[in-house]
Design goal:
The strands form 4 sheets. Strands 1-2-3-9-6-4 form a 6-stranded mixed beta sheet. The protein is built from 19 helices and 13 strands. By secondary structure, it is α+β, with helices and mostly antiparallel strands. Strand 2 and strand 3 form a beta hairpin. This is Cytochrome P450. Belongs to the cytochrome P450 family. It comes from Streptomyces desertarenae.
């Protein structure tokens, strides 16, 4: 039986004295009225003393050397450090591997329900904050704990598991070939914008049963939402509009896709719950897979350990992907948890309702676990990159499949791929949640643009010569059958 989701304007149990509407989801961009009193994003009252020396998680320093930034915070503060999000919003960043696991695995003491967030309850976060598309409460599984979380997560997990992994890999190969076709003859490409940012979303449109044309529009909208720019709210509205139409279409005409399977699941999700889970998976899967693919490609092209061992057969591509998940997680910071009472963490006093962030990139290099940055992990999957505990990512294997199959197809088509600029000229942009490679220019030997998954053109029908026509007329109008060489590329053991 479906459980109606709570009104977001109503506080969760145990949260007293809440102003009306404090938990309402974000409103229109450039929302109505003045910012709430004391909003740190609008120059309100000063930050609490414990955040006087807080470190911004965004900007040039975070983009240039995030690992160095985390180590400096670790040396100064220990396992938990005061930080600022876009707009000067304060939070605590967990840097210790064990501390992250303890918080992630204990939802009774550290809830995921954003309605416990004290700064939001007390009116210091405006409804039009660009952080709200990421941190705002919604009727989805990551905003819930306990039985409701299990009901919603079960629907997502069960629906994702219905996909045949081999079919997903075939879809990735087919889409990747089409992308490579567009630049194979040029001898040069920019692999972030022309490949890594496009492939995950086009595969997702297949899995969702969305029209292919929606993919390109969703790529940019998803990036703006996660970046937390001034366009984040507009991008979120755009995504909601597309997905709301999709839910209506799939209710009328279901198919073998993620949206239809959520609709028919025994958890009996409401239309709003379905929409929010479609949004959740779309945005997170695209963001994490895009970054994972871009980071892996950069390492394959620039790091002698990867380039040499991949060519020499001593490291498989899946093992290389796992190494990147240790060294450069697609999300460097995972939001958010909220203590259900005052407590001490890593020698720091945190208050009930403080915003805690899981610094998974920092946790993966915590000296306390005996690992140094860049150390070869030989496929070890005990990293934190997909979260842990009840909220661990249920679609992580699909992300691995899309990344590995996409890169495998690219390297098979363009085996002499190499970086077109010195590695030190590569640049990044950082948000509070992730670090994005801006561009990855490459060169290679130009090749004929051909997608081996495209069927050959249909043979033209033979035309019989009219009665009395001269001999040889039939040959003049007949055509050779197309080559069947493309079929050999689809046989087992051959890469497409």
């Amino acid at each position: 039986m479906s459980t109606p989701f709570p009104d977001p304007s109503v506080p969760p149990p145990g949260v007293p004295d809440v102003p009306p509407g404090a938990f309402a989801r974000h409103g229109p961009a450039g929302g109505a009225g003045a910012p709430p009193p004391g909003c740190p994003a609008h120059g309100g009252r000063p930050l609490p003393p414990e955040f006087a020396d807080a470190t911004p998680l965004y900007g040039p320093e975070a983009a240039a050397d995030p690992a160095g930034l985390y180590e400096r915070m670790r040396e100064r503060h220990g396992a938990i450090a005061p930080v600022l999000l876009e707009g000067g919003v304060p939070a605590w960043l967990l840097l210790g591997y064990e501390e992250i696991l303890q918080v992630a695995r204990n939802p009774r003491r550290f809830t995921r329900d954003t309605r416990h967030w004290r700064d939001c309850r007390e009116g210091r976060i405006p409804v039009d904050s660009p952080l709200m598309p990421v941190l705002g409460w919604r009727p989805d599984c990551i905003s819930q704990d306990g039985d409701e979380h299990q009901r919603l997560r079960g629907a997502v997990k069960d629906s994702l598991e219905r996909f045949d992994r081999r079919a997903i890999r075939r879809a990735v190969h087919r889409r990747a070939h089409r992308l490579v076709d567009a630049f194979a003859g040029a001898g040069r490409a920019e692999l972030v914008g022309q490949f890594a940012q496009v492939l995950p979303m086009t595969v997702l449109t297949d899995l969702y049963g969305l029209p292919e044309a929606e993919g390109a529009r969703l790529v940019e909208a998803s990036r703006q939402l996660v970046k937390g720019t001034e366009k984040a709210l507009e991008a979120d509205r755009h995504i909601h509009g597309i997905l709301r139409r999709l839910v209506a279409d799939k209710r009328a005409e279901p198919g073998p896709d993620f949206a239809s399977w959520l609709i028919e699941h025994g958890a009996r999700l409401t239309d709003e719950e379905i929409l929010q889970h479609l949004r959740l998976v779309l945005v997170l899967a695209n963001e994490t897979t895009t970054n994972l693919m871009a980071n892996t490609l950069r390492m394959v092209l620039t790091d002698p350990r990867f380039r040499g061992t991949l060519d020499g057969g001593r490291m498989t591509l899946p093992a290389a992907v796992e190494q990147i998940l240790w060294d450069e997680p697609p999300l460097t910071v995972v939001p958010g948890r909220f203590p259900t009472h005052d407590m001490e963490i890593g020698g720091r006093r945190v208050r009930r309702g403080d915003l805690l962030l899981l610094g998974v990139a920092a946790g993966n290099t915590d000296p306390a676990i005996g690992r140094s940055p860049g150390q070869d992990m030989h496929g070890n999957r005990s990293h934190l990159s997909f979260n842990s505990g009840p909220h661990e990512c249920p679609g992580q294997d699909i992300g691995r499949a899309v990344t590995g199959s996409g890169i495998d197809t690219l390297l098979a088509r363009l085996p002499d791929l190499h970086l077109a600029v010195p590695e030190e000229e590569l640049t990044w942009t950082a948000t509070s949640w992730s670090r994005h490679l801006d561009a990855l220019p490459v060169r290679f030997t130009p090749r004929h643009a051909r997608n081996p998954f495209e069927p050959p053109p249909a043979p033209r029908p033979r035309v019989q010569p009219a009665a009395g026509a001269p001999a040889g007329a039939a040959a003049a109008v007949s055509h050779r059958r197309p080559s069947r060489g493309w079929l050999r590329l689809l046989r087992p053991g051959r890469r497409g």
